[in-house]
Amino acid sequence: MTPLDRIRAIAMEQPRAAEKLSHGMPVFFIDKGKTFAWFSENHHGNGITAVLVKTSGPDEQDALVEMDPDLFYKPAYLAPSGWIGIRVDTGDTDWSQIEARIEQSWAYAATPRLREQFGR
Known about the structure:
The chain has helices at 3-12, 58-67, 95-109, 112-117, and strands at residues 17-22, 25-30, 35-41, 49-54, 72-73, 83-87. By secondary structure, it is of the alpha+beta class. It has one domain (3-111): Alpha-Beta Complex (Aspartate Aminotransferase, domain 1). It has a six-stranded antiparallel sheet with strand order 1-2-3-4-6-5. The chain is globular and about 35 Å long. It starts with a helix and ends with a helix. This is MmcQ/YjbR family DNA-binding protein. GO terms for molecular function: DNA binding.
């Protein structure tokens, strides 16, 4: 299974998830609203394959990058809006961590009503 296949499977398990292409990349969002994950592969020739997810903001982004700069990075264009990149091309991807980060990103993107409806 490719990294995109695995990310897609996790993302599409989220309540009311949908997928579209944006800027040539698969994007996962809630209904026709908020984006909660991007699949990024060699974006602008950076050589990185990653999932991009929302964080609680700059403090969490900085903490993640400081904790493991080989895994986490601030993605171009999206980092100022609180997104973090998680590499899935290193050969030792922790898919349970990816799943947890996608689920958390969904919760950050969802409305309070949706979070309540789905127990998040």
